[in-house]
Amino acid sequence: MQIWVDADACPGVVKEILFRAAERVRVTVTLVANQYLKTPPSRYVKSLQVPAGFDVADNRIVQLLEADDLVVTADIPLAAEVIAKGGYAIDPRGRLYTEDNIRERLNMRDFMDELRGTGVVTGGHAAFSHGDRQAFANQLDRFLTRHHVAQGGTT
């Protein structure tokens, strides 16, 4: 199991949580972005720079993803592709995407895009908060604990 991070828009605090988790449970975390990203010296943390372009990082993640890998992304279409390929996806605010909720999230995303296209101001996401950081850390810990135990490890 590996963790892939759609890193161009991922909050720095989420990356820091992932770096600590990588060391703690010895799992590879790979940041994928179209720009250079500084990573801490670690055998478990890597960075993959892709060319600039629409969905280039997303496509590379899907290409490299294996079943049971985890992807950290706020991109709902990417999360849908991850789930379809047998992976798991979590957003930086700690929401786990699942087969049960991804269709609803895609529909809501499309609806909001349509509203914005007609000139309706829908606002953006709220600022990333301490509660979001905590929700992400908790969800990641739950996921890693379940996955580690499922692989025969100990917590």
How would a crystallographer describe the biggest sheet? 6 strands, mixed
How many DSSP helices? 5
Strand content: 15-25%
Q: Find the structural class using helix and strand composition.
A: alpha/beta
Strand neighbour order, sheet with most strands: 3-2-1-4-5-6
Name the assembly state. single chain
**Distance, first to last CA:** 16 Å
Low-confidence stretches: none
Helix content: 40-55%
Q: Total strand count, please?
A: 6
Give the helices and strands as they follow along the chain: EHEEHEHEEHH
Query: What is the CA-atom radius of gyration, in angstroms?
Result: 16 Å
Q: What is the approximate shape? A: globular
What is the average of the pLDDT values? 87
What does the secondary structure layout of this molecule look like, with pairings?
Elements (H helix, E strand, L loop, with lengths): L1 E5 L5 H14 L2 E6 L11 E5 L6 H9 L5 E3 L3 H9 L3 E3 L5 E2 L4 H16 L12 H21 L5
Helix pairs in contact: 1-5, 3-4
Describe this structure in words.
The protein has 155 residues and is of the alpha/beta class. The chain is 45% helix and 15% strand. Helix 1 runs parallel beside helix 5 and helix 3 packs antiparallel against helix 4. The longest helix is centred in the C-terminal third of the chain and has 21 residues. The radius of gyration is 16 Å and the shape is globular. The two termini are 16 Å apart.
